[in-house]
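Researcher: Please predict.
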Amino acid sequence: MIVTLHCDGTGWMIASSLFGPPHGNEIAIIAWLIATFTAVWVLAIISKWLARKIWKGKARMQETLSEYKSLISLALPKLLTISELASCARAAPGKWSKKEILGHLIDSASNNHQRFVRAQLSGEIKLPDYDGDAWVRTQGYQAESWGDLVDFWKLYNLHLLHVVEAIPMNKLNSICFIGQNEPVTLEFLIRDYVKHVKHHLEQILA
């Protein structure tokens, strides 16, 4: 098959790279070699950068998932040792009780459940933030059974753990607008949620 190309300059160099080295022209051959070497070098750099980025992303998520699993498994037996009376006590007037803190964590699980799922269904989501105090006050966690709240928190977080483990790597960069906050990635939301859970569990178990 004969291919006839009428081009000069950069276009000619690209065509030469694609269809093989030119013949009978030393300058053209050198130019072709340089262009080919440069293209291979650039592709190698890009491939290495992408591989490193993907590996780091997987490593971060594995670390986050490992911490999340540990939080659930280690906290559960300790939460169950707290009595009904102790779960209702307030450290000071206006402060949340252990029941209300755990209720807040259930609210956080509920809101983040929506974020984790919806962010996978679209490259970008916009969801409202929520008023933690108002949610706790409205739902009356103080009047609920401590054992029921612990069971609910456990089951909800085990399900969220399952949800997060199933998220494809290419979905972790989905952009999320939450209320008036700056946009963040789905990966950031997951990691931030685990930090949030750890913070409040430490409050309850202190």
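Model: The helical segments are 9-19, 26-80, 84-88, 98-121, 132-139, 146-165, 186-205.
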